[in-house]
Specification:
39% of the residues lie in helices and 18% in strands. The protein is α/β, with parallel strands linked by helices. It has two domains: 2-137 and 297-308, Rossmann fold (3-Layer(aba) Sandwich), CATH 3.40.50; 152-295, Glycogen Phosphorylase B (Rossmann fold). Strands 2-1-3-4-5-6 form a six-stranded parallel sheet, sandwiched between helices. A six-stranded parallel sheet has the order 9-8-7-10-11-12, sandwiched between helices. Helix 4 (95-105) links the parallel strand 4 and strand 5 (111-114). Helix 1 packs across helix 12 (298-308). The longest helix has 18 residues, at 278-295. It is elongated.
């Protein structure tokens, strides 16, 4: 079976490459960025010709989709008419501006997958029934543990928007907190750097006792129970302290795979507690690591997709 994955392909967010890693268990895979990535973008028509020559049985459209700039509807219709299966996995935070495009694209797709139950309901309200829930996943080829000394109390990697910034400033008063992302915001933190992405994330997490996962307003608004950031943290065998989002308990067991908080006061109390419990913290980190490898990798996601398409039993 030939499978073509198209979407974001950059070192900071290597989702498309991770899909490629998982799909290769089911056939020959080509995973490439959309034509507008890179210093010499490929004209859309030439890009479509590449796909046409490859003759995929399955086309996976991943991440940000900018409509006709990426792949024309006429081209996708021709692929469908020749028996190519089409699935999509949009990036939820960008759907504010891309929502209508994905709704237009949905009838051409076998399925569109999202981690947001809200978006599935919104699609149904306009008569679209092929949206399916698919949670965030990690790629063990990108995210894995390293055996180094832990020298950092707490680490947050991400953009410190207003709600997050207040919590980080509160933690910074008491703990050895390192924050990667949003340096230009000048939050007055003791340790603030540009960030870490891809495999560099492993090196930072390996040095960290507590990996902090704070929700974004988008995550909260769309009822996304957990993000790629969380499962990537767990995949590096780092203890995760997570800001609670409704539904998190359906996927992870508290104090077994991770721990969570609901208020800033509880966050500080739990950080203080878990930093004092080295052996227990390491045990939970180990259990969280084993759990995501057994349940939340891209390979699990691809297996679900292949079963939905009835391409495997």
């Amino acid at each position: 079976m030939r499978i073509f994955v198209v979407g974001r392909w950059v070192e900071t967010f290597p989702f498309s490459e991770s899909w490629g890693h998982a799909y290769r268990y089911y056939g020959e895979v080509a995973a490439v960025p959309f034509p507008w990535y890179g210093t010499a973008p490929t004209p859309r028509e030439a890009f479509e010709e590449i796909i046409k020559i490859y003759q995929p049985k399955l086309l996976h459209v991943d991440g940000t989709y900018l409509g006709e700039k990426d792949l024309s509807f006429d081209f996708l219709k021709k692929l469908r008419s020749k028996g190519t299966r089409l699935i999509g996995r949009p990036v939820e935070p960008s759907l504010g501006k891309e929502w209508n495009l994905w709704l237009e694209l949905s009838p051409l797709m076998d399925f569109v997958y999202t981690a947001s139950p809200i978006l599935i309901e919104e699609a149904r309200k306009v008569g679209i029934e092929n949206w399916r829930f698919l949670s965030a996943a990690t790629d063990p080829e990108f995210y894995y543990p390293l055996d180094v000394e832990k020298t950092i109390d707490t680490l947050f990697l991400g953009y410190p928007e207003e709600g997050r910034a207040q919590k980080l400033q509160q933690l910074d008063k008491e703990f050895d907190l390192w924050v990667g992302g949003g340096v230009h915001l000048n939050l007055g933190l003791k340790h603030h750097f540009w960030g870490a992405f891809g495999r560099a994330l492993n090196e930072w997490n390996a040095k960290t006792r507590i990996g902090l996962c704070l929700k974004r307003e988008t995550t909260k608004r769309l009822d996304i129970p957990f993000t790629f950031s969380l499962v990537n943290t767990l995949a590096t065998k780092t203890f995760a302290l997570v800001e609670y989002v409704a539904g998190l308990e359906k996927f992870f067991e508290r104090k077994v795979h991770l721990d969570w908080f609901e208020t800033s006061e509880e966050m500080v109390e739990l950080a203080r507690y878990w930093l004092s419990q080295n052996d227990l913290r390491d045990k939970v980190a180990e259990q969280g690591y084993e759990f995501v490898l057994k349940n939340h990798t891209f390979r699990h996601s691809v297996e679900r997709i292949m079963r939905d398409l009835r391409l495997i039993v």
